[in-house]
Amino acid sequence: MEQLTTIGINHYLTISAFLLGFGLFAVMTRKNAIVILMGVELILNAANINFLAFSKFNGGMGGVMFSLFVIVLAAAEAAIALAIVINIFKLFKSVDVSSIDSMKE
Amino acid sequence: MHSLIQLSIVVLLLPLLSFVILIFFNRKLPRRGDFVGVGILGTALAISLYMFWTVIVQTYDPAFKLAWDFTWIDFGNVPGVGPLEIRMGIFVDNLTVIMLAMVTLISFLVHLYSTGYMAGDKHYGRFFAYLGIFTFSMLGIVLSDNLFSIYMFWELVGLSSYLLIGFFFEKQSAADAQKKAFLVNRVGDIGMWLGILILYSQFHTFGYQQIFDNLAAGKFTMSNAWLTAAGILLFMGCVGKSAQLPLHIWLPDAMEGPTPVSALIHAATMVAAGVYFVARIFALLTPDALHVIAFCGALTAFMAATIAITQHDIKRVLAYSTVSQLGYMVLGLGVGAYSAALFHLLTHAFFKACLFLGSGAIIHAMHHEQDMRWMGGLRKHMPWTFATFTFATLALAGLPLTSGFMSKDAILASAIGFAKVEGGGIYYLIPVLGFFSAMLTAFYMGRQIWLVFFGESRTHLKPAEEHHGHDAHAAHGAHHGHNDHGHEEHHGVHEVAWNMRAPLVILASLSVFAVFSPDPLDGAKGWFMHMVQTPETVVGRYTTEHASANLSAPSALMAESVQAEPAHHTMTDAVPAANPAHGATEAGHGESAEGHTFSDHRQAELAHESHAAHYTAIIISSIMVVIGISMALIVYAFRIINPEKTSEAIRPLYLFSFNKWYWDEMYEATVIRFSIVLSKMLAWFDAKIVDGIVNGVAIMTRNFAFANGSFDKYVVDGLVNFTAFFVNTTGAVLRKLQTGKVQTYIVMALFAVLGYFVYYLTKLIY
Fold it and tell me: Looking at residues B497-523, what average pLDDT do you find?
């Protein structure tokens, strides 16, 4: 029980794994590009939690700094990705990734 | 340049001019340009006679000599050969001047004669052109001052004779004869060229005078056998051109040529070129080489004389007679009788040309009948021809009061002297053969005169089937309708026109003794023997060493000369003393041309002995000639001995002579068959081995190329194609992976990461 009552690294990692799982699931199954981007955000945040958890239990500020960079990067990525999505929409009149397969063969 | 040299160059080039004009323009000129040939030769004759007058009559100096030369080609210092410079030049001495006059005179007369004899021939103009080039070449030989240019003119003479023998080239026999003459001459010329090269390799010069000087200075560094070899090889040129054994076979066949050509080339001049050439190189001939020459000449003289007695063709008898007389000249040179041999060359040229032109007149008058069996009784119809022909015959047979008598006896006297000097034995064969041939000569010429001119005409006896295919009929067909003897019937025989008669008369009158010497018994008193004197040998020093070297030589022949050696030395010591004594005892011969002394012992002895044998020779040869003529009269005139029955009685001998000693058959069986077998072998070798190698290489290359091609096609191309195929297949599979759907990629990336983890964990665990 003690393991459950005391919040340890396993909890963090478990949450992070769930988040990653959700993110991947969203990315792989959803057809809407926006939703896929949201999945990507989830994955990134799962990684952030991992960084912070290891930072906390390991001491030092490396993980914190890294997660801050990831947040900034995620913001930039979102901006670019959304711009791409807008352009795809302009071109295909759709954001359904399953119908956008002109790169096939 | 001396004016005589300039004149001799003009004489040399005039006939060439005639050739050039006639060969290109004879069809455009009136009378086919015969007057050009005759005129130009007349000019050349006039210049030659002027030179003769200046040199022989006015100067009258035995030592007269003029030379002029220039560098023709200078190759500089050729690696492996040394300095190579070819000079051309003119050499004029008494002999040259005499030969110039003789050649131009006979050539002119033959030109004149041909205007009658060849009239109506379809290649009339070309005939005169050929006569021109021939005369040019012959004069070139006469005027040459070096071996190189004489060799060039030598070949030109060969060419001219080829052209003229084959003048009636439509006739197979004439075409064969011209080829035969050319090829047989080549054999001799090869030897001559090798001889020239031996001398050139030693002295790096072709000039006679330079070679003699070098030899006299003792600069010949090879063994003396090489010097003898050089002499014999040079003599081979004479063997070919002057029709000596064993290369005489071309000359009788050369009678296929027109008769004026036979007179000019095959009697008077070209065949004399060989003798003239040996005379020019006489000084460098070693005694051994001279022995070979003497025996060659003696055997030739005898062989040809025996053949001549059974031939039926009038020209063929004369041809063999020519071979025989050339044998005399060569014999004369071999025994050291330089002046006598050349004297005979000159006298023979006149009377033999006369005989040939006379036979031409007979053939012309007889409508191209050449077989003496069907002639007879012509003296009534052709008095001029009869008289000149008979006189020339007497000269040829060597009867006193003729020129032939003097020259032939001078040779025979030297032959006797030679045999004495050489120590007798086998060497007596030479004078014996000479005298025997003299008898045969008298016999066959008597036979010819009788068959042709005496008795009754036998034209009607001729078997009908022989009428066709006889000599010159085909080519001379046009002649039969010829204006001045188309009348009468077939037997219409009459004297020939003036242009054919004049040469006969001139030539016959030049065969009288008085032209050459005031004493009909001794040619040595004449101008010729005075002007042309035996040159001093330049090989004396080599032969002396040679004799001492003989002591160790094993050869039987050499042993013989060793035995003679002590005698030589005692003799040679005695000669200078004996000579004046001789002159004192026989005062009548004191002024003899042969009286001048030689520094060479052998030559001095020869001169002395020849002189001593003079009257012996005259007596023996006169007896021989009388026997010969009497025999001819007994057999043919009085018919005491029936020739047909006699020939039946000694049939093998008769056939041996009639078939010309089977020389042609022998060559046919040996040289020709051997050549044919060899050629066939070579052809086989060429077709099978050489071609086989070439074809083999081709097949090998082809097969290799095929293998190479297969390798390229299947292995190299296979690899390339396989690569392409592999990439294509792989691509086709991998292409499916690129769906263009982002999510598929993500799944793949996920599985890849998962795969990595699985791998990593597995590694970690185990």
Answer: 82
- d(C-alpha B166, C-alpha B579), whole Å: 53
For B360-414, what is each residue's pLDDT tens digit? 888 888 777 777 777 777 777 888 888 888 888 888 888 888 888 888 888 888 8
| Domain range enclosing A56 | 2-92
Residue A63 lies in a domain: yes
Distances (CA, A) of B181 to B317, B349, B386: 18, 20, 31
As a whole number, the mean pLDDT across chain B is: 81
| Chain B residues 280-309 with CB within 8 Å of chain A | none
Record: contact B738-A105, CB cut-off 8 A: yes
Chain A residues touching residue B740 (CB < 8 angstroms):
100-105
Q: What is the CATH number of the domain that holds A70?
A: 1.10.287.3510
Q: Where is average pLDDT lowest: B87-91, B238-242, B508-512, B633-637?
A: B633-637
> In terms of DSSP H, where are the helices of B118-223?
124-143, 147-165, 172-203, 208-216
pLDDT at position B697 is: 93
B747 touches chain A (CB under 8 A): yes
For residue A98, tell me if it sits in a domain.
no
Selecting from A24, A100, A105 the residue whose C-beta is nearest the C-beta of B735 gives A105
Q: Is residue A97 part of a domain?
A: no
Distance between CA atoms of residues B201 and A27, nearest Å: 109
- B660 pLDDT exceeds 80? no
Closest CA to B207 of B156, B149, B153, B157: B149
Domain count for chain A = 1
CB contact under 8 A, A101 and B746: no
- C-alpha span between B604 and B718 (Å, rounded): 97
Total-model pTM: 0.72
Kindly state whether B739 is in contact with chain A, defined as any CB-CB distance less than 8 angstroms. Answer: yes
* B738 interfacial to chain A (CB closer than 8 Å): yes
Which helix (H) or strand (E) is A104 found in, with range? Answer: none
CA B588 – CA B431 distance, rounded (Å): 25
- Which chain B residues have a beta carbon less than 8 Å from that of A36? 742-743
User: Which candidate in B735, B738, B742 is best for mutational testing of the A interface (most A CBs within 10 A)?
Assistant: B742
Question: Does the residue A81 lie in any domain?
Answer: yes
Whether the predicted pLDDT of A38 surpasses 60 = yes
Whether residue B766 has pLDDT greater than 90: no
Residue-wise pLDDT for B245-256, tens only, equals 888 888 888 888
